[in-house]
Amino acid sequence: MKAVHFGAGNIGRGFVGLLLHEGGYEVVFSDVAAGLVDALAAAESYTVHEVGAGGRDRVVTGFRAVNSASDPELVAAEVASADVVTTAVGPTVLKFIAPHVVAGLRQRPADEAPLQVMACENAIGATDLLRREMATAAGEDWSSLEGRAVFANTAVDRIVPGQPEGGGIDVTVEPFYEWAIERAPFGETPPSIPGAHFVGDLGPYIERKLFTVNTGHASTAYLGARGGAATIAEALTDERIAAGVARALEETSALLSAKHGFPAEEMTRYRETILERFRNPALPDTVQRVGRQPLRKLSRHERFIGPAAEAAERGLAVDGLLTAIGAALAFRDPEDEQAVELEGLLARLSPDEFVAQVTGLDAAHPLYPRLVEVVGRATAAG
Ligand SMILES: NC(=O)c1ccc[n+]([C@@H]2O[C@H](COP(=O)([O-])OP(=O)(O)OC[C@H]3O[C@@H](n4cnc5c(N)ncnc54)[C@H](O)[C@@H]3O)[C@@H](O)[C@H]2O)c1
Ligand SMILES: O=P(O)(O)OC[C@@H](O)[C@@H](O)[C@H](O)[C@H](O)CO
Question: Which residues are listed for NAD(+) binding in this entry (predicted)?
Answer without folding.
Answer: 3-14
